Sequence to fold (101 residues):
Amino acid sequence: MTSEDVFEWLNWLDEVTRVSDQWCDWLLRVCDTCRVMSNKRKGLFVRPDGTKVNLSAIEWEDYKKQIDQESMHLRKTEILILRRADAWDTKTKPKEGLFGL
Fold:
């Protein structure tokens, strides 16, 4: 591998790290929101003023659709990263020598 290849690989690795951080942040946010939404759905969510908040079935379905749409972008990005990983794997495999050694 040339120094240009190493530089390109490091840029790719930086992108992988950035996308991983995005996935982590998104998953944490979704888990926190799901916890609140689930409690609202069960009628267990109480505002500071003491009033209960209930979530309708339609609101719950809308939320699930929103999460599915958000996850689609991250899934597409993941596929691109995996394809590039395969390309790097192929690029960095040792080549056979002149005599097949």
Q: What stands out?
A: The mean pLDDT is 84. The chain is about 75% helix and 5% strand.
